[in-house]
């Protein structure tokens, strides 16, 4: 029986058999972006709704082999056109997008908190 804190599946192939096993929620991994930089992300969510966060908590989504900052369109979380980077590598427009997403996360968390 799986514990509730396991929500992602990892798989490995043994011959022609694929063995799947759950990974703990919040697993981190490093990915090479389209521009050659490395981005560390942590996955969150479950099988119905999931996304990734940068190390400083900015939501990102995979698209065409790289991670892009997430945005909300028509009440859905979608990848924006801005390629994501580690905090120290962000520039101009990218820093503004990341700051706006950070503010949205803070506002949403505050509104959802109980007094």
Structure description:
- It is a single chain.
- This protein has 115 residues and is α+β, with helices and mostly antiparallel strands.
- The chain is built from 1 helix and 8 strands.
- The strands form 2 sheets. A 6-stranded antiparallel β-sheet has the order 3-4-5-6-7-8, covered by helices on one side. Strands 1-2 form a two-stranded antiparallel sheet.
- A hairpin with a 5-residue loop joins strand 3 and strand 4.
- The N terminus is likely disordered.
Q: What is the element layout, followed by pairings?
A:
Layout: E1 6-14, E2 17-24, E3 28-32, E4 38-45, E5 50-54, E6 59-63, E7 66-73, E8 76-83, H1 92-112
Give the gist of this structure:
The chain has one helix and eight strands.
Give the integer mean of the pLDDT values. Answer: 74
The gyration radius over C-alpha positions equals 16 Å
How many β strands by DSSP?
Answer: 8
- Class inferred from helices and paired strands: alpha+beta
| 3D shape | globular
Task: Report the span from N to C terminus.
Answer: 36 Å
Q: Write out the strand line-up for the largest beta sheet, numbering strands in chain order.
A: 3-4-5-6-7-8
Order of helices and strands: EEEEEEEEH
Low-pLDDT windows of residues: 1-15
Percent range for helical residues? Answer: 10-25%
Largest sheet: 6 strands, antiparallel
Helix count, DSSP H or I runs of 4 or more residues: 1
Our estimate of the beta-strand percent is over 45%
